[in-house]
């Protein structure tokens, strides 16, 4: 009776019901009757399907018109290389593990076949075999020749750079996002940057050594909007880039290079800054220089501002310079700085992330600290996020834990003073209804 009622539904409604099934369930459902056999292979149901299980992938490549994502482990490469030979399935995202020279040869077959039917717009490669592997240039050539590829991620753990393959087929620029997680850039990276210079918008090369960051090539990308790389002296060459709006800078224990400071001081259109590592904006002079930069009134996100508490206190009188700031992340929260944060000094601020106090401090006690409560009450639109290791210790004896308030609190949640429903799913911990014991 239930089956008859289900099949009585119009095709559009039945497709909406089938959209809740997994790829494995769709393949099982299609054997029930002729109508479901056809509907379960409707393109709409497979455009969001992600498959990594070899058994499901075997059937999907034979029957499904398309797949959103296919993940192939190294142990399954040989089987999938055979399966794709007779497949017309269009795969949008492809993830491959290449751990040996034979894996590289099999991956080449998969990439060539799936890209030839109009797929592989997003490719992620985890390369574990040495750069000198004889089959690796052939795989890199197949990647370089993919027509219409938009995103490419290459994770390569070896220090020897990837070679530049010879590609006799003209490639139209199409790549918009390139992420290279490697300690060495080299010829293949330069070839990608040159080939897709007209379309690249997002380049992530955080592990490259300072001397290998190709700032000259990056400066020739007219549409470059986001860059993630090591803080280097040569970054000053990008200071006048017309479209660069988001920067992530990575560094170690070395001093923040003057070239990186020049970039931050002179860049005209920065909207987001993020610092990783010990180096970065961490002195009073750095803070003053950033506040006086051309992009200070335009910045919407400022992440990873470090320094000792006495240094961060110097940021308090500079806050009004960042009138567009929506997200701020600080290494510590000195009281003077917390008192300076207000709707008048930072009218656009919606999220404040802090990485203090110490690990052993109770989250209840921290949130009920007068400085934190005052901050939230004075900024009713603010969302407070603690992104450290702070939590509620087991058996904590603080007065707030004994009282039993907020038993569900966790580090990493958003906290606020505004009651009622919030689209950001925050937790109210301050306000008239949150009185102390």
Secondary structure topology:
Layout: H1 2-7, H2 11-18, H3 23-29, H4 34-39, H5 43-46, E1 50-51, H6 54-63, E2 66-72, H7 77-83, E3 90-98, H8 101-116, E4 122-127, H9 136-144, E5 151-156, E6 177-182, H10 186-195, E7 202-205, H11 215-218, E8 226-230, E9 246-250, H12 258-266, E10 272-276, H13 284-291, E11 301-305, H14 309-312, E12 327-330, H15 335-340, E13 351-354, H16 363-367, H17 370-378, E14 383-386, H18 399-403, E15 414-416, E16 427-428
Parallel strand pairs: 1-2, 2-3, 3-4, 4-5, 5-6, 6-7, 7-8, 8-9, 9-10, 10-11, 11-12, 12-13, 13-14, 15-16
Antiparallel strand pairs: 14-15
Helix pairs in contact: 7-8, 8-9
Q: What does this protein structure show overall?
A:
InterPro entries: F-box-like_dom_sf, F-box_dom. Pfam families: F-box-like (PF12937). The chain has 437 residues and is of the alpha/beta class. Among the domains are: 45 residues, Up-down Bundle (Monooxygenase); 154 residues, Leucine-rich repeat, LRR (right-handed beta-alpha superhelix), CATH 3.80.10. It is 30% helix and 18% strand. The protein has 18 helices and 16 strands. Helix 7 runs parallel beside helix 8 and helix 8 packs parallel to helix 9. The protein is globular and about 70 Å long. The relative contact order is 0.04.
